Amino acid sequence: MTDNMKCLERHSKCYRPFPRQIFNMILIHVRSAHKGRCINKAGRAEFLHHMKCIRNPLDSEPAHQCLDRWTVQMKLVSEQYSIEDHFPGVCCSFHMMKDCLVKAVLSVCKEGTAAESAKYAEKMMLQTFSDFLDLACGRQKNLEDCERTFKEGTRKLIDAVAAGVPAQNGSALFHAIKIVTRHD
Questions:
Q1: Quick check: 94 and 133 in contact, CB under 8 A?
Q2: Angle, to 10 degrees, between the axis of helix 17-34 and the axis of helix 172-181?
Q3: Minimal CB count within 10 Å: which of 11, 93, 99, 169?
Q4: Are 108 and 121 in contact (CB under 8 A)?
Q5: Read out DSSP for 54-89?
Q6: Dist CA 47 CA 44 (whole Å)
Q7: 80: CB partners within 8 A, 6+ apart
């Protein structure tokens, strides 16, 4: 993870000012999460406590499926949404991914720390993206807002993953970067 952090930091220098600011805004929280979960002994213990129910790759597959769905949705937003719909699309796909991951943790961890681990996972995701959510998601603060204020776009996101998605080789982050660079 430390090597990945260094790569992200180098990568962020390649962008023009606006995308770099957005990227760095998220990167600050990713760095903080990395320190809190990987470097800090108490944070690492807390992370391992909440993730102990995920013992092997088969157990973690529901969470991976949420991230694969998010990647497909972000690609859809990047490639097919108008520039005006980019940020609502990003916000609503994030809320869908967050809700999916919370449900996955509740299901996978049902024999142990389900509720507290789901809250922990949700808190970590919200902390990582809090500044972006505050900046760009004023009208779409949750899925209910998405369904009310971005009905057609939300329906497209749901339809894109309704039949399931194959494992993705890339990350939603790559599509997010494409979107942000179009706003510079």
A1: yes
A2: 150
A3: 169
A4: no
A5: --SHHHHHHHHHHHHHHHHHHHHHHHHS-GGGHHHH
A6: 5
A7: 156
Radius of gyration of the chain (CA): 16
Domain ranges of the chain: 2-181
Nearest to 31 by CA among 60, 8, 61, 15: 8
The CA–CA distances, whole Å, from 143 to 49, 66, 72, 115, 136 equal 29, 15, 18, 20, 15
pTM: 0.88
Do the beta carbons of residue 77 and residue 96 sit within 8 Å? no
The single-letter code of the amino acid at 25 is M
Tokens read off for 14: 């390649």
Closest CA to 179 of 88, 56, 63: 88
Q: Are 71 and 173 in contact (CB under 8 A)?
A: no
The position carrying tokens 């982050």 is 173
Please list the rounded mean pLDDT of every run of 10 residues in the chain (184 residues). 74 78 81 85 91 79 94 97 97 97 92 89 89 91 97 98 95 87 80
Query: What is the spatial distance between Cα 15 and Cα 1, in angstroms, rounded to a whole number?
Result: 22
